[in-house]
Amino acid sequence: xxxxxxxxxxxxxxxxxxxxxxxxxxxxxxxxxxxxxxxxxxxxxxxxxxxxxxxxxxxxxxxxxxxxxxxxxxxxxxxxxxxxxxxxxxxxxxxxxxxxxxxxxxxxxxxxxxxxxxxxxxxxxxxxxxxxxxxxxxxxxxxxxxxxxxxxxxxxxxxxxxxxxxxxxxxxxxxxxxxxxxxxxxxxxxxxxxxxxxxxxxxxxxxxxxxxxxxxxxxxxxxxxxxxxxxxxxxxxxxxxxxxxxxxxxxxxxxxxxxx
Length: 260
Fold this sequence. Notes:
Blueprint: H1 7-26, H2 37-55, H3 68-107, E1 114-116, E2 121-123, H4 125-140, H5 143-157, H6 167-176, H7 178-208, H8 214-232, H9 234-246, H10 248-259
């Protein structure tokens, strides 16, 4: 009995496993300590095995060899591609967390940060609330199916063992990162504006009634008004986040085009 091993297929599966493994390690709800690394590797390997036969025609002929230099080069290349795609997707969640930090600081919750055992770090309560809502909207709007499609398109545009340079993708992501602060401020804008008006009103009241202790009265008022505004602004939060998810395919396409 003879066994034949397709070296090209094995090389493509290896490259796609590395590319999808890095991407799976940075996805929301998969980048926490509660998800074992073996599960992420199994997910990446399953996607690689499923997509490898369709990707093989795009691989340059004779590019896959048993020499260690091309294999190491492609491993590093797949690692960079996966990191850039994961960074592009996580721009949404970074913007949401930034908005939560700003909103929590304005309300006065920045001094009650909680320890998150999942990420092993201190987190803002409102930031964690925004992050969980963004993750729920990510799956409700079927953005994860867009991600799977983008993974396949990335393999066609940037096939394994290709020769394209990836330096343009780094500059593109550096420019895209500037939108994080813009979107974060847009999400937190209702809370910032309302609490700014409350602070101005408290200043006028203190000038009118000097006997009033602004520290005793101001904190409960700002917390109460901030929480009410937070609840009322969730509709606006949903619109902004869903708009970002709708623009995610174009954003991923621009990133892949910049890496060509």
